[in-house]
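Progress note, project year one: complex with 3,4-dihydroxyphenylalanine.
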Amino acid sequence: MLEKIENLKNDALAKIKIASSEEELKNIELEYFGRKAGKIGEILKAIPTLEPKERGAVGKNANIAKKDVEAGIAARYFEIEEEKYASLATSEKIDVTEPAINKIEKGKRHPLSKFMLECEEVFGKLGFEVAEGYEIEDDFHNFEALNFTPDHPAREMQDTFFIENEELKGYVLRTQTSDMQIRFMEENKPPYRIIAPGKVYRKDSDATHSPMFHQIECLMIDKNVSLANLRFILLSALRELIDPNVDLRFRLSYFPFVEPGLEVDALLKVDGKETWLEIGGAGMVHENVLKNVNIDPKKWNGFAFGFGIERMVMIKYGVKDLRSFFENDLRFLKQF
Ligand code: DAH
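Model obtained:
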């Protein structure tokens, strides 16, 4: 009996040694430890039928054999696992320096985003920081604090999208980035030099209007700011952003939040001819606006201006239809 146990164990260990997969090991496990006809189990079961003086030695040896075979199987499992991972290093090796089979096209920034980033950089050099806000805006920041009285016709002029949701009653999709003048001044102490680029919304759609478009707002508040400062800042920025030869002209106009209000024209070469193009609005910040954010207009004053980004980019690159910015036609987008 003892010899039988010894042979059984040696057989098992030999099979384990040459097993080359988890599958094979599982079969060996079944052969020796299977519930129904496991060879080691059979021996243990047979012990009670043996001569009493034999039982002790058989039991002991059978248990040692059982442990050895179990340990052998566990060790071989581990080895097989190791071999599998070791071979991954060769079977799944990737040469990252190999040229791609398909040429991967690199994405680029959209011309509008690109221009806004350029604005941040150029105005940044002039000491302006970037302020960001919300596209869903309340009446106070979009209109009231900017000196639009409740019945002001400009509220209609701006073709406002009013939000028709009970919870957001009184909110609008902001019609202008001028709301950021208010938001920034509420939160910070003067002096200020900020730009606020972002999306704005108006009910309007044709070759030069889109219901969603982008504006950039600029605000400078300090002591003794004048229109000369406005002209210098704006001209310096536009010469870097659009054309080094650009010139500017101001015409009197009206916006509730500035006094005087100005329309800004830029002199640019269009198809070889010098032309004055309207590019945005500007002015000296109205004292009511400063009062609305608790700033003393006797101590502080400043200028503001706002421009349409699409219009700027159209002028810069000679784009004729504003809708091309939103059609995502790669033939158009790749030109920038
Ligand atoms: N917010 C105005 C608009 O969308 C543009 C504008 C005009 C902005 C004059 C200004 C400004 O800051 O001073 O029509």
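The chain has twelve helices and nine strands.
The pocket of 3,4-dihydroxyphenylalanine is lined by residues 176, 178, 217, 255, 258, 281-283, 304-306 (CB under 6 Å).
No further modelling is planned for this target in the current period.
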